[in-house]
Each structure stands twice: as structure tokens, then as C-alpha cells.
């Protein structure tokens, strides 16, 4: 979808504002949101749920507000909880109730595993159509769902830099409820002068794309 | 382990929404207080750019490790015990006298958490994400980094499952330094590619 999240090459956002000695979490609730997200599963559409926040809200809220909105929508759409359950819990908390506690050594072990080295599954897919050095053209498509091909590449010529072992294409995974369609994917090199018309700019942009993202 | 969060009255809308989400998931048995605490504590105390800096310093002093880092960064990270979510696939890209690398995620804010920690707000913000692919020299200039003309800039947009880390060049005049001292020179920004290590500069 052509949402506000697809920022590459857009202009008018001003200087990069930095913060010295930035902490991992600026507020305790940000840490909770991070911890909840990494230790639970509320559905397969994490990014697609952020992208549907609406452009104005997306651009005027923080990273962890994006996560919060995503988990709320993702959980409701996946049937994990309802909007009403969230609202009722919020009303109870606002009325003075504490967040309940639950302790589960198995959940702690699972959380630990997620943040330490672990084996990844391998996926079977048709052999890759392209090899390093091949020229490709990015398809001019604008699908309505989640899309991992940045809009700034549409129609652009590129060169395959490397080929990766198949992985489920996330466009389908996030849009279609976690459906896994493994596909070859690639790192593709683009010349900046093939993407934008800025005088004097000459650099290389490398982007990871699935086979779906190229013209037939 | 502290559970003081449970006894602090939510004040802002974000705090209230977070507390509601945690409450619903706890009541359904889908999340546990201690698992959330485990993640929060790990990202506050264990997982951060010091991890990546140790890998860079090792690569500077050990050519065999450098080779492993450049060919299989996931395995090279696992040698230090680093890995997991958002680090299942990592590629290390090497700065040379001819090439300067910089990483971004224009669509979201993808970042190699196990070795760099939580990305800074500027990395996740629209100005950096929109501009660094299009005008990297102007952005690097704002960071105080002047990449000599003739050096090719490569911007890596982490749009799929691969996360990136930059292997900066070892600065001159560091021949006598220990691996730990070298790691002190390697800031988070050096591994994103918006800075380069300098002798006498403390790692941010």
C-alpha cells in the first residue's frame, strides 16, 4: 500500500535530529511494549498493521506508538482479543486497578531463546531466476496490501548483487494472515541517477527484493 | 526483578493503552510478567552497540575472524553469544579506502538488534529514512562526516529479512591498542555508517 511509511526519497522532512546519550527506552511503557511484542504473538501482520494507522497519525506519533497501534489492530484482526476487551481493561486500569501479574518459567525460557542464537528453518522454493550480475527491472506495481518493494524503485533498472536462500515473501505473509510462500530473494544494486534527478548525486543504493518485485 | 510498573498509575494515553494490552494478554495467559521483564532487562542491560563494537575490534585484530564476519556475520555474532530476533540474518559490509557504507530501513526501522541494540530515534525517523537513500552526502555532512570525493557511497536499504552492520576501517595510530581499547573507539554510529572511528573519540 502507498502509505506514509514508504519514505525513501521523499522530501520535506527536514534535518536529522539527534539526541545525545539516548536510552533504549524513553519511558517505562516503551519497554513494556517492546517486551510484550517480543514475548507474545498477536498475529502475523505486524508491519501491515502499522502501515494502516493513517498517514497523519503515523507521521505524528513515536516508534513505540506505532508498535502499540500495530499490536492492538493485529490482535483484534487475528481474533486474539477484541477492541471491547481492550477498552474494558483500560477503563479498569483508569479506575484504579493494577495490571495483573502472571509468572511462567516456560515463557521466560521462550523469551530468552528469542533473544539468543537459534536455528532458523530452511525453506524450499523454485530455483532463483537470476544470478549475480544479471540486469533486472523493478515492476511498476502498487499492491493494496503490505509490500516490501519501496515505491522509489518502481520501474528502475538494477543489477543483482547477491542471491539469498529462499524465504517466505513477506508481502503475502503479512497481507494474507501468515501464508508462507517461499521465494528466491536478492540484494539488488541501483545507481542513484536511475532513481532521482538530483544533479551531482552519484551513489549506489542496495535493496533486498523478492522475485515478485521484478518485471516478468 | 522489579515489578514497580504494576503499581504506577498510568497517566498518559500511551501508558493506559500499554497497561490495557498487557492486562488483556495476561488475563488470557498469552504473556507473562516475567517474560516481559526478561526482554526489557536484556535490552536495557545486555544488548546494545557494545556487542557490535566487540565484533569490529575482534575483526581488526584477527584476520580469520574478519573473514568469518564478512562471510557469515550470524555465525560471527554467535561466537560471542549474540543472536536472535532481528539478527537471524545479518550481513557485514566493509568500508575500504574506495567504499563507504551506510545502513537504513526506508519502509520501517529494521536494525540488527542483537549486535546494535534498540535503534536511536533518529534512525527510525522520517528525515533519516527519507533522505539517506537520496542524498547520503548531505546527511553524512550533518553528522559531521565528510566522505572524500571519489569514495563510492553504498546505502543499504534493509527492506527484507537481512540486517546490516558496517565494518569501519581501523584508524591509524591504534597499533598498540588492546582489543578492548579498540572496541571503545567503535560507536553505534560507526556501525550504522554515519560516523567513522577516531582516536581520542569516546564511543557513543
- Count of strand segments of chain B: 4
CATH superfamily of the largest domain in chain B: Nitrile hydratase alpha /Thiocyanate hydrolase gamma
Strand order of the largest sheet of chain A: 1-2-3-4
Spans of chain A with pLDDT under 50 lasting ≥5 residues? none
Bulk shape of chain A = globular
- Give the CATH level 1 class of the largest domain in chain A: Mainly Alpha
What does this structure look like?
The complex is a heterodimer of chains A (216) and B (204). Chain A is of the alpha+beta class. Chain A has seven helices and four strands; from the N terminus they run ααααααββαββ. Chain A has a four-stranded antiparallel beta sheet. Chain A is globular and about 60 Å long. Chain B is an alpha/beta fold. In chain B, 43% of the residues lie in helices and 11% in strands. Chain B contains eleven helices and four strands. The two termini of chain B are 28 Å apart. The N terminus of chain B is likely disordered. Classes of the chains: A alpha+beta (216), B alpha/beta (204). The interface between A and B is large, with 98 and 90 residues. Strand 4 of chain A pairs parallel with strand 3 of chain B, so a sheet runs across the interface.
Keywords:
heterodimer, A: 216 residues, Cyclin A, domain 1, SH3 type barrels, four-stranded antiparallel sheet, 15% strand, B: alpha/beta, Nitrile Hydratase, Chain A, 2 domains, two-stranded parallel ribbon, two-stranded parallel sheet, globular, disordered N terminus
Amino acid at each position: 500500500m502507498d502509505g506514509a511509511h514508504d519514505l525513501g526519497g521523499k522530501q520535506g522532512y527536514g534535518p536529522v535530529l539527534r539526541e545525545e546519550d539516548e536510552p533504549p527506552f524513553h519511558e517505562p511503557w516503551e519497554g513494556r511494549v517492546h517486551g510484550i511484542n517480543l514475548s507474545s504473538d498477536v498475529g502475523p501482520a505486524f508491519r501491515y498493521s502499522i502501515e494502516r494507522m493513517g498517514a497523519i497519525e503515523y507521521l505524528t506519533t513515536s516508534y513505540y506508538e506505532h508498535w502499540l497501534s500495530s499490536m492492538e489492530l493485529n490482535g483484534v484482526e487475528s481474533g486474539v482479543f477484541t477492541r471491547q476487551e481492550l477498552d474494558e481493561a483500560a477503563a479498569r486500569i483508569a479506575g484504579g486497578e493494577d495490571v495483573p501479574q502472571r509468572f511462567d518459567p516456560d515463557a521466560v525460557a521462550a523469551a530468552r531463546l528469542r533473544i539468543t542464537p537459534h536455528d532458523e528453518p530452511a525453506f524450499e522454493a523454485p530455483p532463483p531466476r537470476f544470478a549475480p550480475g544479471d540486469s533486472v527491472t523493478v515492476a511498476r506495481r502498487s499492491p493494496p496490501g503490505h509490500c516490501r518493494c519501496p515505491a522509489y524503485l518502481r520501474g528502475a533498472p538494477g543489477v543483482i548483487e547477491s542471491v539469498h536462500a529462499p524465504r517466505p515473501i513477506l508481502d503475502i505473509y503479512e497481507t494474507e494472515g501468515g501464508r508462507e510462500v517461499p521465494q528466491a530473494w536478492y540484494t539488488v544494486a541501483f545507481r542513484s541517477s536511475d532513481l532521482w534527478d538530483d544533479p551531482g548525486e552519484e551513489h549506489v543504493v542496495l535493496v533486498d527484493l523478492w522475485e515478485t518485485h521484478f518485471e516478468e | 526483578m522489579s515489578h514497580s510498573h504494576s503499581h504506577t498509575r498510568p497517566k498518559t494515553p500511551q501508558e493506559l493503552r500499554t497497561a490495557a494490552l498487557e492486562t488483556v494478554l495476561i488475563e488470557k495467559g498469552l504473556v507473562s510478567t516475567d517474560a516481559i521483564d526478561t526482554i526489557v532487562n536484556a535490552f536495557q542491560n545486555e544488548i546494545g552497540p557494545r556487542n557490535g563494537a566487540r565484533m569490529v575490534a575482534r575483526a581488526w585484530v584477527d584476520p580469520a575472524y574478519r573473514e568469518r564476519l564478512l562471510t557469515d556475520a550470524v555465525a560471527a555474532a554467535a561466537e560471542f553469544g549474540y543472536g536472535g530476533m532481528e539478527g537471524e540474518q545479518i550481513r557485514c559490509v566493509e568500508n575500504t579506502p574506495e567504499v563507504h557504507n551506510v545502513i537504513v530501513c526506508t519502509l520501517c526501522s529494521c536494525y540488527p538488534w542483537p549486535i546494535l541494540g534498540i535503534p536511536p530515534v533518529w534512525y527510525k525517523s522520517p528525515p533519516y529514512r527519507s533522505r539517506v537513500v537520496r542524498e547520503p552526502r548531505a546527511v553524512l555532512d550533518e553528522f559531521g562526516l565528510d566522505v572524500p570525493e571519489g569514495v563510492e557511497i553504498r546505502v543499504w536499504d534493509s527492506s527484507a529479512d537481512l540486517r546490516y552492520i558496517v565494518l569501519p576501517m581501523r584508524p591509524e595510530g591504534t597499533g598498540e591498542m588492546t582489543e578492548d581499547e579498540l572496541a571503545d573507539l567503535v560507536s553505534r554510529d560507526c556501525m550504522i555508517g554515519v560516523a567513522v572511528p577516531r582516536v581520542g573519540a569516546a564511543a557513543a
